[in-house]
Amino acid sequence: MDKIVVFLLLILTGCAATPKDKDFEEMIFYVPKDYNNMSSGKIKLNAMIHRAKDKKNRIGLLVLNFGGPGGEAVESASQMISEKSFPQSIIDRFDILAIDPRGTGKSEFISDLTRCSFNSECDSEKESVGFNISTMKFTQDIDYIRKSLNEDKITFLGYSYGTKIGQLYSFLYPQNIRGVVLDSPTSIEHGNAIEESMTIPFAYERIMYHRLSKSEIELIKNINNKIKEHEIYTTKDGYKIDQDNFNKLLETIISTNDDDWSNIKPSLISFLKTEIFYDYIVKIQEIESSNSNDSSDSSLAAAIASASIGSINCSDENKPLLDSEIEDSLSLFERKSSLFGSLAYNAYYSMCLRWKAKRDPLPYISKVNNRVPILIIGGKLDSLTPYEEAIKVDKMYLGNKKLVTVNNIVSHSFSFSYTDAYVDYITEKYLLNPNYIIDNT
User: Fold this and answer.
1) Which single residue of 8, 29, 189, 347 has CA 20 to 30 Å from 268?
2) Any idea where the Peptidase S33 tripeptidyl aminopeptidase-like C-terminal domain is (predicted)?
């Protein structure tokens, strides 16, 4: 086995809250560019490790991934540790490892995606880099790094897209993993981006029924019917609403956080009852203005993440669709929801349209039958990874698994995020003893 070159540096900057914490170490790993072609050379991955405080009772290595695709890990993990988001028991007993995946943070291929983020027509860049930043390759990276650190097993905590990595790792390397937390999962079983996004309308519908009354929803449906019949709906104060404008209105219902929603809802209800649109527009502009103070660094990170989503999702496809099938899929979305079908279709249909590049497809996985204990956390009102995905993942695992359902919270990614104390408790106890939680929860 090739020996990985590892450079260890004390973190003196980057984790501002704990600049002198001796347990933080910054690491650089050199891993194969292509595991199927070991002569392809090595690439650099940026990482951070926070050493267990209680050395005598150390459990092992806890690997974090925050999803995306396109999300970095080092800054997010450092912030969570510095802000004491993790229970002290986890800080005490685990070496916590965060690796910036390929194309994120300070890892290889970030420059390609940075250039792409400034170019609205960057299909060629996304295609050229997609094969090299696939889910398969980063999953292989994790195991390569595990071996370099002389760890027999890892424990994995993944959020959102990061749960795909956890599912794939548990499938490929069951002997090398102690336990897996899949928080807000998306199933690895989907063959293409369109298939994966088909559950999105169900999530949108659930959130709408949670936030609006039946009579208010009927008013929404009436507007939808008028637009479908006449293409344009004209409000009493003269605003013309077409399908795109209507989709933006729907988006405010399902994607705003609870605080913003409490501010938006009265003006939306007033519009639905009076058909006077002006006050609603003013309120939306106020919310957008108050949320537009992101730093240039965070805006750039979001742009890079956006550029990488298509690169990874399209490269991962093992049942890619023809362009004609993608373009004709609107009716499939609308069958799922006459209200939200168009919104979901517009958000996802172009992702892999006209993709011509080489893929690094995920393996076909329908059932996983091993003794790895799996904790699955799904939110009934999660608009990003619908609850149907959690159910699908739960059914995929035939052995040791437990599904925890979060109700009545419009949120995404729950563990150690100050969202639900009981979820934090379950995740903490699972990480400390996976089999106990699986058997007793």
Assistant:
1) 347
2) 339-435
